[in-house]
Amino acid sequence: MRVTIPRKFAIEAAVICAYTVITFVFFLPAVMHLTDRIFGADTHCLDWSWNFWYFKRALFETGIRLYRTDLLFWPQGADLYFHTFSLVNCVLYVALSPVMSPATAYNVLMLATFVVAAYGTYRLCVYVIGDRRAAFVSGMLYSFSAYHLIHAYYHMNTSSIQWLPFLVLFFLRTLRERGAGNPMLAAVFFVLNALSCWYYLVFSLFLLPLLWIFARWKSPSWFTTGHPKRTATFFALSLVPMLVLALPVLLQYRGDGYMVENDVSLWYSADIFSYVLPSPWARLLPRWLRRLPSSCGMLGEQILTPGYVAWGLVIFLFWKGRRTHQAVWIWPAVFFGVLSLGPFLRVCGKWYITWTDWEPIRIASDFLRDATGGLFGFDFRRYALPLPGLLVGRMPVLDVIRVPGRYGLVVILCMSVMAGMGLVRLNGFLRMRFAGRRWLPSTVAALCCMFIFVEQWTYPFPSQDTNVPAVYQKIAADPNDVAVFEVPSEHWETQARYIHFQTAHGKKIAKGIVSRQSPSQQRFLETDTLALLLRGERPLPDTCLNRRTVSRFANTGYRYIVVHWDWLDQHQPRNDPDRLREFLDRQFGSPENHDGASLYRVEVPLPRDP
Asked: pTM of the predicted model, to two decimals?
Protein backbone atom coordinates (compact mmCIF):
# COMPACT_ATOMS: atom_id res chain seq x y z
CA MET A 1 0.00 0.00 0.00
CA ARG A 2 1.43 3.33 -1.04
CA VAL A 3 1.54 6.02 1.64
CA THR A 4 1.09 9.59 0.43
CA ILE A 5 2.70 12.33 2.52
CA PRO A 6 0.81 15.64 2.38
CA ARG A 7 2.75 18.29 0.47
CA LYS A 8 2.77 20.62 3.46
CA PHE A 9 4.50 18.10 5.71
CA ALA A 10 6.91 17.14 2.94
CA ILE A 11 7.99 20.79 2.61
CA GLU A 12 8.46 21.14 6.36
CA ALA A 13 10.50 17.92 6.51
CA ALA A 14 12.64 19.11 3.60
CA VAL A 15 13.32 22.43 5.34
CA ILE A 16 14.35 20.71 8.57
CA CYS A 17 16.59 18.29 6.66
CA ALA A 18 18.18 21.18 4.75
CA TYR A 19 18.97 23.05 7.98
CA THR A 20 20.35 19.83 9.50
CA VAL A 21 22.67 19.21 6.55
CA ILE A 22 23.87 22.83 6.59
CA THR A 23 24.53 22.57 10.33
CA PHE A 24 26.59 19.40 9.95
CA VAL A 25 28.63 20.87 7.08
CA PHE A 26 29.11 24.08 9.04
CA PHE A 27 30.58 22.24 12.01
CA LEU A 28 32.95 19.97 10.14
CA PRO A 29 35.32 18.48 11.27
CA ALA A 30 34.05 18.81 14.86
CA VAL A 31 31.02 16.63 14.11
CA MET A 32 33.44 13.77 13.39
CA HIS A 33 34.24 13.73 17.13
CA LEU A 34 30.73 13.77 18.57
CA THR A 35 31.52 11.06 21.12
CA ASP A 36 34.92 12.04 22.49
CA ARG A 37 35.17 15.85 22.30
CA ILE A 38 32.94 18.77 23.32
CA PHE A 39 32.22 21.72 21.02
CA GLY A 40 33.87 24.86 22.36
CA ALA A 41 36.77 27.27 22.00
CA ASP A 42 38.14 26.94 25.54
CA THR A 43 37.55 25.06 28.76
CA HIS A 44 34.43 27.11 29.58
CA CYS A 45 32.40 24.55 27.67
CA LEU A 46 33.59 21.89 30.15
CA ASP A 47 31.56 23.68 32.83
CA TRP A 48 28.49 22.15 31.27
CA SER A 49 29.61 18.58 31.81
CA TRP A 50 29.54 19.39 35.54
CA ASN A 51 26.19 21.21 35.30
CA PHE A 52 24.55 18.25 33.63
CA TRP A 53 26.20 15.72 35.94
CA TYR A 54 25.22 17.60 39.08
CA PHE A 55 21.63 18.20 37.91
CA LYS A 56 21.22 14.48 37.27
CA ARG A 57 22.53 13.69 40.74
CA ALA A 58 20.23 16.27 42.34
CA LEU A 59 17.31 14.77 40.44
CA PHE A 60 17.85 11.13 41.36
CA GLU A 61 19.96 11.00 44.53
CA THR A 62 18.72 11.80 48.01
CA GLY A 63 20.61 14.39 50.02
CA ILE A 64 21.74 16.36 46.95
CA ARG A 65 20.26 19.86 46.74
CA LEU A 66 20.02 21.57 43.37
CA TYR A 67 20.71 25.08 44.61
CA ARG A 68 23.31 24.30 47.26
CA THR A 69 26.40 22.11 47.04
CA ASP A 70 29.38 21.20 49.18
CA LEU A 71 31.18 19.51 46.29
CA LEU A 72 32.71 22.85 45.32
CA PHE A 73 34.60 25.32 47.53
CA TRP A 74 34.87 22.75 50.30
CA PRO A 75 34.35 23.14 53.26
CA GLN A 76 32.16 26.26 52.88
CA GLY A 77 30.25 25.01 49.85
CA ALA A 78 28.54 27.25 47.30
CA ASP A 79 25.08 28.57 46.49
CA LEU A 80 23.85 27.72 43.00
CA TYR A 81 20.73 29.89 42.88
CA PHE A 82 22.23 32.13 40.19
CA HIS A 83 24.36 29.46 38.57
CA THR A 84 23.92 28.97 34.81
CA PHE A 85 22.15 25.61 34.92
CA SER A 86 19.87 26.09 31.88
CA LEU A 87 17.20 23.81 33.29
CA VAL A 88 15.66 22.93 29.91
CA ASN A 89 19.00 21.67 28.60
CA CYS A 90 19.61 19.80 31.83
CA VAL A 91 16.29 17.97 31.48
CA LEU A 92 17.03 17.16 27.83
CA TYR A 93 20.46 15.88 28.84
CA VAL A 94 18.92 13.55 31.42
CA ALA A 95 16.55 12.25 28.74
CA LEU A 96 19.46 11.58 26.34
CA SER A 97 21.94 10.21 28.88
CA PRO A 98 20.64 6.59 28.85
CA VAL A 99 21.48 6.25 25.15
CA MET A 100 24.38 8.73 24.73
CA SER A 101 27.69 9.49 26.35
CA PRO A 102 27.96 12.86 28.15
CA ALA A 103 30.01 14.38 25.32
CA THR A 104 27.62 13.11 22.65
CA ALA A 105 24.57 14.42 24.51
CA TYR A 106 26.17 17.86 24.89
CA ASN A 107 27.11 18.04 21.21
CA VAL A 108 23.68 16.89 20.05
CA LEU A 109 22.03 19.57 22.19
CA MET A 110 24.36 22.21 20.81
CA LEU A 111 23.75 21.20 17.19
CA ALA A 112 20.01 21.13 17.86
CA THR A 113 20.07 24.79 18.88
CA PHE A 114 21.13 25.68 15.32
CA VAL A 115 18.60 23.49 13.54
CA VAL A 116 15.67 24.43 15.79
CA ALA A 117 16.58 28.15 15.83
CA ALA A 118 16.69 28.21 12.04
CA TYR A 119 13.41 26.34 11.71
CA GLY A 120 11.69 28.53 14.32
CA THR A 121 12.71 31.69 12.47
CA TYR A 122 11.59 30.11 9.21
CA ARG A 123 8.13 29.40 10.65
CA LEU A 124 7.92 32.93 12.09
CA CYS A 125 8.81 34.51 8.75
CA VAL A 126 6.45 32.26 6.80
CA TYR A 127 3.69 33.54 9.06
CA VAL A 128 4.71 37.20 8.92
CA ILE A 129 6.00 37.43 5.35
CA GLY A 130 4.30 34.55 3.54
CA ASP A 131 7.31 33.63 1.36
CA ARG A 132 9.08 30.33 2.07
CA ARG A 133 12.28 31.17 0.21
CA ALA A 134 12.73 34.43 2.08
CA ALA A 135 11.82 32.69 5.33
CA PHE A 136 14.54 30.08 4.74
CA VAL A 137 17.13 32.83 4.32
CA SER A 138 15.90 34.53 7.51
CA GLY A 139 16.34 31.25 9.39
CA MET A 140 19.94 31.06 8.18
CA LEU A 141 20.61 34.66 9.23
CA TYR A 142 19.31 34.17 12.76
CA SER A 143 20.68 30.71 13.50
CA PHE A 144 24.15 31.15 12.00
CA SER A 145 24.66 34.69 13.24
CA ALA A 146 27.92 35.71 14.87
CA TYR A 147 26.09 35.98 18.21
CA HIS A 148 25.02 32.33 18.14
CA LEU A 149 28.37 31.02 16.94
CA ILE A 150 30.40 32.92 19.51
CA HIS A 151 28.19 31.70 22.36
CA ALA A 152 28.44 28.15 21.02
CA TYR A 153 32.15 28.48 21.83
CA TYR A 154 31.47 28.84 25.54
CA HIS A 155 27.88 28.85 26.84
CA MET A 156 25.10 26.33 26.39
CA ASN A 157 22.59 28.61 28.10
CA THR A 158 23.07 31.68 25.90
CA SER A 159 23.43 29.42 22.84
CA SER A 160 19.85 28.24 23.41
CA ILE A 161 18.32 30.94 21.23
CA GLN A 162 15.98 28.49 19.49
CA TRP A 163 12.82 29.10 21.56
CA LEU A 164 12.58 32.87 21.06
CA PRO A 165 11.30 32.76 17.44
CA PHE A 166 8.62 30.22 18.39
CA LEU A 167 7.57 32.43 21.30
CA VAL A 168 7.21 35.47 19.04
CA LEU A 169 5.36 33.40 16.42
CA PHE A 170 2.70 32.08 18.78
CA PHE A 171 2.39 35.42 20.56
CA LEU A 172 1.55 37.06 17.24
CA ARG A 173 -0.85 34.25 16.44
CA THR A 174 -2.46 34.82 19.83
CA LEU A 175 -3.18 38.41 18.78
CA ARG A 176 -4.41 37.56 15.28
CA GLU A 177 -6.20 34.20 15.56
CA ARG A 178 -9.03 32.91 17.67
CA GLY A 179 -8.80 29.76 19.74
CA ALA A 180 -7.06 28.59 22.90
CA GLY A 181 -4.22 26.68 21.26
CA ASN A 182 -2.01 29.64 20.42
CA PRO A 183 -1.92 31.15 23.95
CA MET A 184 -1.06 27.73 25.35
CA LEU A 185 1.75 27.14 22.86
CA ALA A 186 3.05 30.68 23.40
CA ALA A 187 3.15 29.99 27.15
CA VAL A 188 5.03 26.73 26.58
CA PHE A 189 7.70 28.46 24.53
CA PHE A 190 7.85 31.34 27.03
CA VAL A 191 8.74 28.86 29.77
CA LEU A 192 11.22 26.98 27.55
CA ASN A 193 12.89 30.24 26.60
CA ALA A 194 13.09 31.48 30.19
CA LEU A 195 14.36 28.21 31.66
CA SER A 196 17.03 27.93 28.99
CA CYS A 197 18.61 31.23 30.03
CA TRP A 198 17.48 33.81 32.60
CA TYR A 199 18.72 36.54 30.24
CA TYR A 200 16.11 35.49 27.72
CA LEU A 201 13.35 35.71 30.31
CA VAL A 202 14.20 39.39 30.73
CA PHE A 203 14.38 39.86 26.96
CA SER A 204 10.91 38.32 26.55
CA LEU A 205 9.42 40.59 29.19
CA PHE A 206 10.67 43.58 27.19
CA LEU A 207 10.09 42.28 23.67
CA LEU A 208 6.50 41.05 23.84
CA PRO A 209 4.99 44.31 25.16
CA LEU A 210 7.00 46.24 22.56
CA LEU A 211 5.66 44.04 19.77
CA TRP A 212 2.13 44.51 21.11
CA ILE A 213 2.50 48.30 21.26
CA PHE A 214 4.01 48.77 17.81
CA ALA A 215 1.69 46.23 16.20
CA ARG A 216 -1.27 48.03 17.72
CA TRP A 217 0.10 51.33 16.46
CA LYS A 218 1.24 50.37 12.96
CA SER A 219 -0.80 47.23 12.13
CA PRO A 220 -4.10 47.35 14.03
CA SER A 221 -5.57 44.88 11.52
CA TRP A 222 -3.53 42.16 13.22
CA PHE A 223 -5.80 42.25 16.25
CA THR A 224 -9.00 40.21 16.17
CA THR A 225 -11.96 40.10 18.51
CA GLY A 226 -11.10 38.66 21.91
CA HIS A 227 -7.37 39.32 21.76
CA PRO A 228 -7.23 40.91 25.26
CA LYS A 229 -8.66 37.75 26.78
CA ARG A 230 -6.24 35.54 24.82
CA THR A 231 -3.29 37.76 25.75
CA ALA A 232 -4.24 37.66 29.43
CA THR A 233 -4.54 33.87 29.20
CA PHE A 234 -1.07 33.66 27.71
CA PHE A 235 0.51 35.78 30.44
CA ALA A 236 -1.29 33.84 33.17
CA LEU A 237 -0.17 30.50 31.74
CA SER A 238 3.38 31.85 31.36
CA LEU A 239 4.03 33.78 34.54
CA VAL A 240 2.33 31.50 37.07
CA PRO A 241 4.54 28.45 36.37
CA MET A 242 7.58 30.71 36.00
CA LEU A 243 6.98 32.22 39.44
CA VAL A 244 6.77 28.73 40.92
CA LEU A 245 9.90 27.49 39.14
CA ALA A 246 11.86 30.66 39.84
CA LEU A 247 10.68 31.04 43.43
CA PRO A 248 13.89 29.65 45.03
CA VAL A 249 15.96 32.10 42.98
CA LEU A 250 13.68 35.04 43.75
CA LEU A 251 13.84 34.30 47.47
CA GLN A 252 17.63 34.51 47.33
CA TYR A 253 17.68 37.67 45.27
CA ARG A 254 19.26 40.67 46.94
CA GLY A 255 19.10 44.14 45.45
CA ASP A 256 22.40 45.18 47.02
CA GLY A 257 24.62 45.43 43.97
CA TYR A 258 25.69 41.77 44.17
CA MET A 259 24.28 41.06 40.73
CA VAL A 260 25.92 44.00 38.95
CA GLU A 261 29.62 44.64 38.59
CA ASN A 262 30.40 47.99 37.04
CA ASP A 263 33.51 46.85 35.21
CA VAL A 264 31.81 43.72 33.84
CA SER A 265 28.80 45.58 32.44
CA LEU A 266 31.11 48.20 30.97
CA TRP A 267 33.61 45.90 29.28
CA TYR A 268 30.97 43.51 27.95
CA SER A 269 28.90 46.23 26.33
CA ALA A 270 28.51 46.38 22.58
CA ASP A 271 30.53 48.85 20.57
CA ILE A 272 28.84 51.24 18.15
CA PHE A 273 30.51 49.18 15.38
CA SER A 274 29.60 45.78 16.85
CA TYR A 275 26.76 45.35 14.38
CA VAL A 276 28.86 46.28 11.35
CA LEU A 277 32.27 44.66 11.64
CA PRO A 278 32.51 40.97 10.65
CA SER A 279 33.32 38.02 12.85
CA PRO A 280 37.09 37.54 13.25
CA TRP A 281 36.60 33.75 13.11
CA ALA A 282 34.95 33.65 9.65
CA ARG A 283 37.68 31.82 7.75
CA LEU A 284 36.38 32.48 4.24
CA LEU A 285 36.56 36.25 4.61
CA PRO A 286 39.77 38.11 3.68
CA ARG A 287 42.28 38.33 6.49
CA TRP A 288 42.32 42.13 6.50
CA LEU A 289 38.56 42.14 7.00
CA ARG A 290 38.73 39.68 9.88
CA ARG A 291 41.32 41.82 11.61
CA LEU A 292 39.07 44.86 11.82
CA PRO A 293 37.25 43.89 15.07
CA SER A 294 40.48 43.31 17.02
CA SER A 295 41.98 46.53 15.67
CA CYS A 296 38.90 48.31 17.05
CA GLY A 297 39.22 46.64 20.45
CA MET A 298 36.31 44.20 19.97
CA LEU A 299 36.44 40.48 20.68
CA GLY A 300 34.15 37.75 21.96
CA GLU A 301 30.68 38.80 23.00
CA GLN A 302 31.07 42.26 21.49
CA ILE A 303 30.78 40.79 17.98
CA LEU A 304 27.07 41.13 17.12
CA THR A 305 27.03 41.53 13.36
CA PRO A 306 23.99 40.02 11.62
CA GLY A 307 26.08 39.90 8.44
CA TYR A 308 26.32 42.00 5.30
CA VAL A 309 23.60 39.98 3.57
CA ALA A 310 21.20 41.01 6.32
CA TRP A 311 22.32 44.63 6.17
CA GLY A 312 21.95 44.73 2.40
CA LEU A 313 18.43 43.29 2.46
CA VAL A 314 17.33 45.56 5.32
CA ILE A 315 18.67 48.65 3.56
CA PHE A 316 16.89 47.62 0.37
CA LEU A 317 13.67 47.14 2.35
CA PHE A 318 13.87 50.69 3.72
CA TRP A 319 14.67 52.01 0.28
CA LYS A 320 11.90 50.26 -1.63
CA GLY A 321 9.54 48.86 0.99
CA ARG A 322 6.47 50.16 2.75
CA ARG A 323 6.92 51.51 6.24
CA THR A 324 3.85 49.87 7.79
CA HIS A 325 4.95 46.33 8.62
CA GLN A 326 8.68 46.90 9.05
CA ALA A 327 8.02 49.47 11.81
CA VAL A 328 6.76 46.64 14.03
CA TRP A 329 10.29 45.21 13.95
CA ILE A 330 12.56 48.22 13.60
CA TRP A 331 11.63 49.90 16.87
CA PRO A 332 12.21 46.84 19.07
CA ALA A 333 15.52 46.44 17.25
CA VAL A 334 16.46 50.04 18.06
CA PHE A 335 15.35 49.63 21.69
CA PHE A 336 17.42 46.50 22.29
CA GLY A 337 20.30 47.88 20.26
CA VAL A 338 20.57 50.88 22.56
CA LEU A 339 20.43 48.65 25.64
CA SER A 340 23.18 46.45 24.21
CA LEU A 341 25.51 49.47 24.11
CA GLY A 342 25.61 49.39 27.91
CA PRO A 343 26.02 52.28 30.33
CA PHE A 344 28.24 54.48 28.14
CA LEU A 345 28.77 54.90 24.42
CA ARG A 346 31.74 52.94 23.21
CA VAL A 347 33.38 53.72 19.86
CA CYS A 348 36.17 51.51 18.52
CA GLY A 349 36.78 50.11 21.97
CA LYS A 350 37.18 53.48 23.68
CA TRP A 351 35.13 55.80 25.82
CA TYR A 352 36.15 59.29 24.89
CA ILE A 353 37.44 61.46 27.76
CA THR A 354 35.84 64.80 27.03
CA TRP A 355 34.71 66.12 30.42
CA THR A 356 37.75 65.47 32.54
CA ASP A 357 38.59 69.09 33.24
CA TRP A 358 35.05 70.38 33.60
CA GLU A 359 34.57 71.07 37.28
CA PRO A 360 30.71 70.93 37.37
CA ILE A 361 30.81 67.37 36.00
CA ARG A 362 33.30 66.31 38.69
CA ILE A 363 31.12 67.76 41.44
CA ALA A 364 27.93 66.20 40.02
CA SER A 365 29.64 62.83 39.60
CA ASP A 366 30.93 62.76 43.17
CA PHE A 367 27.55 63.87 44.55
CA LEU A 368 25.62 61.21 42.62
CA ARG A 369 28.01 58.48 43.70
CA ASP A 370 27.85 59.50 47.36
CA ALA A 371 24.10 60.16 47.42
CA THR A 372 23.29 56.72 45.99
CA GLY A 373 25.71 54.87 48.22
CA GLY A 374 27.89 53.85 45.29
CA LEU A 375 25.00 52.54 43.17
CA PHE A 376 26.28 54.61 40.26
CA GLY A 377 29.90 53.82 40.89
CA PHE A 378 31.24 55.08 37.59
CA ASP A 379 33.39 58.18 37.38
CA PHE A 380 31.34 60.25 34.96
CA ARG A 381 34.34 62.42 34.11
CA ARG A 382 35.90 59.57 32.15
CA TYR A 383 33.07 58.99 29.71
CA ALA A 384 31.50 60.99 26.95
CA LEU A 385 27.87 59.93 26.65
CA PRO A 386 25.76 58.10 29.29
CA LEU A 387 23.14 55.74 27.82
CA PRO A 388 19.87 54.25 29.16
CA GLY A 389 21.75 51.08 30.08
CA LEU A 390 23.28 52.98 32.99
CA LEU A 391 19.87 53.10 34.65
CA VAL A 392 18.37 49.83 33.34
CA GLY A 393 21.33 47.81 34.58
CA ARG A 394 20.64 48.95 38.14
CA MET A 395 16.95 48.22 38.33
CA PRO A 396 15.80 45.38 40.57
CA VAL A 397 15.81 42.00 38.78
CA LEU A 398 17.22 43.62 35.62
CA ASP A 399 20.60 43.68 37.30
CA VAL A 400 20.98 40.00 36.42
CA ILE A 401 22.09 41.29 33.00
CA ARG A 402 25.81 41.66 33.62
CA VAL A 403 26.60 41.45 29.89
CA PRO A 404 24.57 44.14 28.08
CA GLY A 405 25.87 43.03 24.71
CA ARG A 406 23.54 40.03 24.88
CA TYR A 407 20.58 42.32 24.27
CA GLY A 408 21.83 42.17 20.69
CA LEU A 409 20.13 38.80 20.22
CA VAL A 410 16.75 40.52 19.78
CA VAL A 411 18.31 42.95 17.30
CA ILE A 412 19.48 40.01 15.21
CA LEU A 413 16.04 38.35 15.32
CA CYS A 414 14.31 41.56 14.23
CA MET A 415 16.86 42.16 11.48
CA SER A 416 16.44 38.58 10.26
CA VAL A 417 12.69 39.13 9.88
CA MET A 418 13.22 42.47 8.12
CA ALA A 419 15.85 40.88 5.87
CA GLY A 420 13.23 38.36 4.79
CA MET A 421 10.88 41.23 3.98
CA GLY A 422 13.68 42.88 2.04
CA LEU A 423 14.29 39.71 0.03
CA VAL A 424 10.59 39.55 -0.90
CA ARG A 425 10.78 43.16 -2.01
CA LEU A 426 13.99 42.46 -3.95
CA ASN A 427 12.43 39.50 -5.75
CA GLY A 428 9.43 41.64 -6.66
CA PHE A 429 11.77 44.31 -8.01
CA LEU A 430 13.70 41.74 -10.09
CA ARG A 431 10.48 40.17 -11.35
CA MET A 432 9.46 43.52 -12.78
CA ARG A 433 12.83 43.91 -14.49
CA PHE A 434 13.14 40.30 -15.69
CA ALA A 435 9.58 39.13 -16.32
CA GLY A 436 8.95 35.44 -16.96
CA ARG A 437 12.08 34.10 -15.23
CA ARG A 438 10.53 31.97 -12.53
CA TRP A 439 13.85 30.55 -11.43
CA LEU A 440 15.10 33.97 -10.32
CA PRO A 441 13.64 34.09 -6.74
CA SER A 442 15.03 30.65 -5.90
CA THR A 443 18.42 31.60 -7.34
CA VAL A 444 18.58 34.82 -5.34
CA ALA A 445 17.64 32.95 -2.13
CA ALA A 446 20.29 30.31 -2.81
CA LEU A 447 22.92 33.01 -3.40
CA CYS A 448 21.93 34.70 -0.14
CA CYS A 449 22.34 31.41 1.76
CA MET A 450 25.73 30.85 0.13
CA PHE A 451 26.96 34.34 1.08
CA ILE A 452 25.68 33.85 4.66
CA PHE A 453 27.71 30.64 4.84
CA VAL A 454 30.80 32.44 3.52
CA GLU A 455 30.36 35.31 5.98
CA GLN A 456 30.05 33.14 9.09
CA TRP A 457 31.82 29.82 8.43
CA THR A 458 34.22 29.08 11.24
CA TYR A 459 36.66 26.36 10.15
CA PRO A 460 37.66 24.30 11.94
CA PHE A 461 35.08 24.77 14.67
CA PRO A 462 37.00 24.24 17.94
CA SER A 463 36.39 21.39 20.36
CA GLN A 464 37.79 20.29 23.70
CA ASP A 465 39.19 16.97 24.83
CA THR A 466 37.06 15.25 27.50
CA ASN A 467 39.62 12.70 28.69
CA VAL A 468 40.16 12.48 32.45
CA PRO A 469 43.76 11.92 33.68
CA ALA A 470 44.44 8.50 35.19
CA VAL A 471 45.32 10.08 38.54
CA TYR A 472 41.62 10.72 39.13
CA GLN A 473 40.78 7.06 38.66
CA LYS A 474 42.88 6.40 41.77
CA ILE A 475 40.90 9.00 43.69
CA ALA A 476 37.58 7.63 42.43
CA ALA A 477 38.47 4.21 43.83
CA ASP A 478 38.61 5.62 47.38
CA PRO A 479 35.28 4.69 49.07
CA ASN A 480 35.62 7.40 51.72
CA ASP A 481 34.05 10.86 51.61
CA VAL A 482 37.22 12.89 51.08
CA ALA A 483 38.27 16.14 49.41
CA VAL A 484 40.89 16.92 46.75
CA PHE A 485 43.11 20.01 46.59
CA GLU A 486 44.39 20.72 43.08
CA VAL A 487 47.30 22.88 41.99
CA PRO A 488 47.34 25.28 40.17
CA SER A 489 44.19 26.52 41.83
CA GLU A 490 43.71 30.12 40.69
CA HIS A 491 42.93 30.30 36.97
CA TRP A 492 39.41 29.73 35.63
CA GLU A 493 40.69 27.47 32.82
CA THR A 494 42.08 24.98 35.31
CA GLN A 495 38.96 25.24 37.48
CA ALA A 496 36.81 24.34 34.47
CA ARG A 497 38.91 21.23 33.96
CA TYR A 498 38.78 20.34 37.65
CA ILE A 499 35.00 20.38 37.81
CA HIS A 500 34.96 18.26 34.65
CA PHE A 501 37.31 15.81 36.34
CA GLN A 502 35.00 15.82 39.35
CA THR A 503 32.32 14.15 37.25
CA ALA A 504 34.66 11.14 37.12
CA HIS A 505 35.84 10.94 40.74
CA GLY A 506 32.88 12.49 42.59
CA LYS A 507 34.91 13.87 45.53
CA LYS A 508 34.79 17.37 46.98
CA ILE A 509 37.23 19.92 45.59
CA ALA A 510 38.70 23.13 46.95
CA LYS A 511 37.38 25.49 44.34
CA GLY A 512 35.34 25.43 41.12
CA ILE A 513 33.36 27.74 38.86
CA VAL A 514 30.05 29.17 40.08
CA SER A 515 28.19 32.10 38.58
CA ARG A 516 27.75 35.03 40.98
CA GLN A 517 30.28 33.85 43.55
CA SER A 518 30.08 34.97 47.16
CA PRO A 519 33.32 36.10 48.83
CA SER A 520 32.63 33.79 51.79
CA GLN A 521 33.09 30.75 49.52
CA GLN A 522 36.88 31.13 49.65
CA ARG A 523 37.28 31.55 53.41
CA PHE A 524 39.24 28.32 53.80
CA LEU A 525 41.49 29.08 50.83
CA GLU A 526 42.32 32.48 52.28
CA THR A 527 42.95 31.40 55.89
CA ASP A 528 44.48 27.91 55.90
CA THR A 529 48.29 27.97 55.97
CA LEU A 530 48.88 24.96 53.71
CA ALA A 531 46.23 26.16 51.24
CA LEU A 532 47.94 29.56 51.04
CA LEU A 533 51.29 27.89 50.38
CA LEU A 534 49.85 25.69 47.63
CA ARG A 535 48.20 28.71 46.02
CA GLY A 536 51.47 30.63 45.98
CA GLU A 537 50.17 33.29 48.36
CA ARG A 538 53.07 32.68 50.78
CA PRO A 539 56.69 31.65 50.17
CA LEU A 540 57.39 27.95 50.64
CA PRO A 541 59.36 27.09 53.80
CA ASP A 542 62.63 25.19 53.74
CA THR A 543 61.42 22.75 56.41
CA CYS A 544 58.32 20.67 57.01
CA LEU A 545 55.22 22.30 58.46
CA ASN A 546 54.34 21.47 62.03
CA ARG A 547 51.84 18.71 62.76
CA ARG A 548 49.11 21.08 63.93
CA THR A 549 49.15 23.04 60.65
CA VAL A 550 48.87 19.93 58.49
CA SER A 551 46.28 18.40 60.83
CA ARG A 552 44.04 21.44 60.38
CA PHE A 553 44.21 20.89 56.62
CA ALA A 554 43.60 17.13 56.89
CA ASN A 555 40.83 17.38 59.46
CA THR A 556 38.89 19.50 57.00
CA GLY A 557 38.66 16.39 54.85
CA TYR A 558 41.48 16.89 52.35
CA ARG A 559 43.22 13.57 51.71
CA TYR A 560 44.68 14.19 48.27
CA ILE A 561 46.78 16.91 46.66
CA VAL A 562 47.03 16.78 42.87
CA VAL A 563 49.63 18.92 41.12
CA HIS A 564 49.45 19.41 37.34
CA TRP A 565 53.01 20.42 36.59
CA ASP A 566 52.38 21.26 32.92
CA TRP A 567 49.86 23.95 33.88
CA LEU A 568 51.80 25.48 36.74
CA ASP A 569 54.01 27.93 34.82
CA GLN A 570 51.11 29.29 32.79
CA HIS A 571 48.34 29.48 35.38
CA GLN A 572 50.15 29.93 38.70
CA PRO A 573 53.64 31.30 38.06
CA ARG A 574 54.02 32.38 41.71
CA ASN A 575 54.92 28.78 42.55
CA ASP A 576 58.37 27.62 41.49
CA PRO A 577 57.85 24.02 40.28
CA ASP A 578 61.16 22.74 41.68
CA ARG A 579 60.66 24.28 45.12
CA LEU A 580 57.04 23.11 45.22
CA ARG A 581 58.03 19.55 44.32
CA GLU A 582 60.77 19.55 46.93
CA PHE A 583 58.39 20.89 49.59
CA LEU A 584 55.62 18.36 48.84
CA ASP A 585 58.05 15.42 48.65
CA ARG A 586 59.50 16.39 52.00
CA GLN A 587 56.09 16.92 53.60
CA PHE A 588 54.08 14.01 52.18
CA GLY A 589 56.58 11.57 50.69
CA SER A 590 56.95 10.32 47.13
CA PRO A 591 53.86 10.85 44.93
CA GLU A 592 52.18 8.72 42.28
CA ASN A 593 52.78 10.21 38.85
CA HIS A 594 50.30 9.90 35.99
CA ASP A 595 49.99 11.91 32.74
CA GLY A 596 52.06 14.85 33.92
CA ALA A 597 50.30 15.04 37.32
CA SER A 598 51.44 14.01 40.77
CA LEU A 599 49.15 12.58 43.45
CA TYR A 600 50.16 13.23 47.06
CA ARG A 601 48.29 11.46 49.86
CA VAL A 602 47.68 13.24 53.15
CA GLU A 603 47.89 10.35 55.60
CA VAL A 604 45.72 10.20 58.72
CA PRO A 605 46.66 9.96 61.53
CA LEU A 606 49.56 12.28 60.85
CA PRO A 607 53.02 11.48 62.24
CA ARG A 608 54.12 13.49 65.24
CA ASP A 609 56.48 16.42 64.90
CA PRO A 610 60.12 15.42 65.26
From this structure: 0.89
What is the gyration radius of the CA atoms in the chain, in angstroms? 27
Question: pLDDT exceeding 70 applies to what percent of the chain?
Answer: 89
Residue type for 286, please? P
Determine the Cα–Cα distance for residues 209 and 203; give it in Å rounded to an integer.
11
CA-closest candidate to residue 545, choices 563, 531, 557: 531
Compute the mean pLDDT over every residue in the chain, rounded to the nearest whole number: 84
486 phi/psi in degrees, rounded to 5: -115, 140
Contacts of residue 469, Cβ cutoff 8 Å, sequence gap at least 6:
501, 594, 595, 596, 597
What distance in Å separates the CA atoms of residue 125 and residue 326, rounded to the nearest whole number? 12
Mean pLDDT, rounded, for 509-532: 84
Single-letter code of the amino acid located at 3: V
Q: What is the dihedral of CA 379, 385, 388, 392, to 10 degrees?
A: -20
Answer whether 290's CB lies under 8 Å from 280's CB.
Answer: yes
Other residues' Cβ atoms within 10 Å of the Cβ of residue 25 = 11
Q: List pLDDT tens digits, range 118-141.
A: 999 999 999 999 899 999 999 999
The identity of residue 157, as a single letter, is: N
Rounded-to-integer distance, Cα 282 and Cα 39, Å: 17
Taking residues 573-584, report their average pLDDT.
87
